[in-house]
């Protein structure tokens, strides 16, 4: 019986398994819609009350599901501390958190994270592949990106402070260094709200430098990820896999498997 | 006779065929100009009336053309449901739609889509190639881009809700979750209108994270498309293999095998 | 004597030639500075008068230079209609244009284009190479970019009109289709001034789509240029040039020249 | 004794050396926090006074450290004029600069630059590698980027002036050419504050061109850096050549020659 439940709840290959996942997704979208409706201004108390009830219904369903999951898996702790388990938990907590701090229950939108399992249902293993390819590319370039972001942050802090020193006497909104650093982020990322903008000649000159920098250095993360994704662009095409060792990733001009030395088909 | 018409209306190689397409394009640009003039404020009724008449003239021409097209093609249904056929229909509908809902007739700008056939007239088969190359690259990377966009959307929903929880008490415009999600899109895409902007320290901190994320993850679609476009050079190889050493990967402009120096077939 | 002048004015290898070019650059920067000063608000008439005189001095020098250039070149017409000749002419016209239309004389900033010859003086042939590499990459991808921009323009027109239909009744600034198309450009390019921004739910939804589109399709031009620049990244490194036919661009794993079949050194 | 100090202060491999660097980082973050607190509005004088004292304490520590560094290195001048030495000096100067010009002492945030040594402590030689890889890529493409930026600047100046000529009569904020050039930067980099925005039809048309240009040419720096970063894979090859067939281009993880199948040395 636990076996059956396991197949239904954790599997996505059987009909009931698919159905189960599908129901979950419907519930998730449903609960997110509730929260959004709830946030809309000037709603009657009755309306609000009903939404609240509906939300608790969904939450309790998820709670039950979570408990069942813990019950049926062989290694509960492994599941609980797995990414999947944490996401499942995050889908429940907010409702209870909402009892303590008003508003926080809206974090149930974290359930949206569970929507990512839609790929599993649609049997889009291909999609998963693509996803994991992207993921691998990002992981492979995490160090480079780390160094890049760290440097950018240092840059942002310095630029922000300089702008504060230059503009703080003006009415241009640079009221403190943290605010100026916020402006620095807004500008370097080319978002540019305009709620804070330099008015002095010197400030605008420095701002121009920040902008051109931001415009130029975006090339760096792009380059990093592109190169990572680009590793062996034509690999799969020519030799899908060595018929002996089954390893992939041979160059298009490879004649022998570079891992086992056997001739490639 | 149907044959003749077919060559004229569907072909673009004969003189009359080119002329026909050219007239179409002139008409399209003409009708789009009409709509734009019409939208300009404080115009006299007479002026408006004339534009209206002119527009109906163009529309009726397109209607006749559409009917003729259906009449002369061998498989009418296939044409009607082809991309081309739908675009042709979209160029007519709005005018009639306008009778029901005022303003909607301005959708005649959808005719602009027909302008893309300009490439055919100019005999820019080369352009078509380029276009289809881009298209293939986008199609080839649709799965990766799909996964990417889906993830980004989930991210946007969560970020938007968090901002709503943080900023909703302020006068900063985060009046509801949908609005906050809209802000989330505006910020993540680095558009940054500034009509909605965080004012609390916490809100600005979260906003900064969203911006840096948006600034960084743009690298992903860029990387995907670049790699796809980059595949081409190794995908289309003129010489599949040297007939002597059988080695692949020769460039288009190669005359001799770059491995054994023998002439390539 | 004409010979001498030619070497001085057109050459940049001899000392006097360098000096001449250097003087030109100083004059250009000087005249641009004049225009900028002139544009600054609340300046006295005397101040204005002096600037005016200075500007005419510079202009007359350039005029003389231009005439001399025409006089000393063997094929005057070829020079006049060459990119260089047109740029030189553009540096003079505005001053006279200013006599007819006030303000237009400020177009003397077009002289800035002549600053690009700074590379020649600094003997930065390397720089020129780099520049022409970029140029070649852009030229090679002009067709792809053309198709891309044309499609984007069609998209912008349609999106702009849709927004006009949706928002024209609001106070959100979509007063006409041209204005809405302008908004469309501002948004798709992720500039986002915020002077015009949707206020209706439907408008904001459509705007979000435009933004995400703009955010995604920037990948296309980037991909195109990157691939063009990336053609044979490691070419030069291994085989600078075939010692027989002198052709470059051999792959790093090439053993024989792929053009003449001779063994590579 | 100087030896010992040298190992502690300049080295990061020994325990004391690590501890020393760690203390430095803590002090840096501490002093930056002080400056930020100080910049916050409406703080009492006492509070300000205390922060001031704390800052001087940190500064004097850094001063002592700097002197010691000079004292213990064999070639003081080389250290003083090295990037590291200048950064260390920049961390001290502002405090004293602040005595002369109020506010400038906030430039102590320049100490943030010293945070980059965090990589050393964490023994993240890998990170340093990544960093220097990025650095090499940027250095290798500096010429191309130089040409690119120079051209962009010329473009910005011309566009800015044209906008000034068109919009200067309006209330749209184009009060002078320098301001218009500032707008030009804000727009071309797609930052788009909106504090200055064109209002005339002609101005908005020109602005649209600037935006699309800015949107398109960002492809250039991205392409440059990507290609440079992409060179790496073929630059650092583990197996220079197969000892049997002498063919190059083997991947890092290759065990056998991919051309002749012989084991690689």
Automatic annotation (TrEMBL), chains A, B, C, D:
GO BP: any one term: action potential
Subcellular location: Membrane
GO cellular component terms, semicolon-separated: voltage-gated potassium channel complex
Domain of life: Bacteria
One term of GO molecular function: voltage-gated potassium channel activity
Transmembrane residue ranges: 20-41, 53-72, 79-101, 145-166, 172-194, 206-227
Keyword Amino-acid biosynthesis: no
UniProt keyword annotation of DNA-binding present: no
Membrane topology (UniProt): Multi-pass membrane protein
Ion transport domain segment(s): 18-228
Signal peptide as annotated in the record: none
Record keywords, A-Z: Ion channel, Ion transport, Membrane, Potassium, Potassium channel, Potassium transport, Transmembrane, Transmembrane helix, Transport, Voltage-gated channel
InterPro entries per UniProt: Ion_trans_dom, VG_K_chnl, Volt_channel_dom_sf
Main location: membrane
UniProt xrefs under PANTHER family: POTASSIUM VOLTAGE-GATED CHANNEL PROTEIN SHAB, VOLTAGE-GATED POTASSIUM CHANNEL
Protein's name according to its UniProt entry: Voltage-gated potassium channel
Source organism: Saccharicrinis carchari
């Amino acid at each position: 019986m636990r076996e059956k439940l396991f197949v239904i709840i954790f599997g996505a290959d059987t009909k009931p398994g698919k159905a189960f996942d599908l129901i979950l997704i419907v519930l998730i979208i449903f609960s997110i819609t509730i929260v959004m409706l709830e946030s809309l201004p000037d709603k009657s108390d009755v309306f609000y009350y009903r939404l609240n009830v509906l939300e608790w219904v969904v939450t309790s369903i998820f709670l039950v599901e979570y408990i069942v999951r813990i019950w049926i898996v062989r290694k509960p702790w492994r599941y609980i501390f797995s990414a999947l388990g944490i996401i499942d938990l995050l889908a429940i907590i907010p409702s209870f958190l909402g009892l303590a701090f008003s508003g926080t229950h809206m974090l149930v939108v974290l359930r949206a994270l569970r929507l990512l399992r839609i790929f599993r249902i649609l049997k889009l293993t291909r999609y998963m592949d693509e996803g994991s390819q992207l993921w691998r590319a990002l992981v492979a370039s995490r160090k480079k990106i780390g160094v890049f972001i760290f440097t950018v942050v240092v840059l942002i802090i310095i630029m922000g402070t300089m702008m504060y020193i230059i503009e703080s006497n003006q009415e241009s909104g640079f009221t403190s260094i943290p605010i100026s650093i916020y402006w620095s982020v807004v500008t370097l990322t080319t978002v540019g709200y305009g709620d804070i903008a330099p008015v002095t000649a010197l400030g605008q000159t420095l701002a121009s430098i920040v902008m051109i920098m931001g415009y130029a250095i975006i090339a760096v993360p792009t380059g990093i990820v592109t190169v990572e994704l680009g590793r062996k662009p034509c690999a799969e095409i020519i030799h899908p896999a060595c018929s002996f060792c089954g390893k992939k990733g041979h160059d298009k001009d490879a004649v022998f498997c570079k891992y086992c030395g056997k001739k490639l088909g």
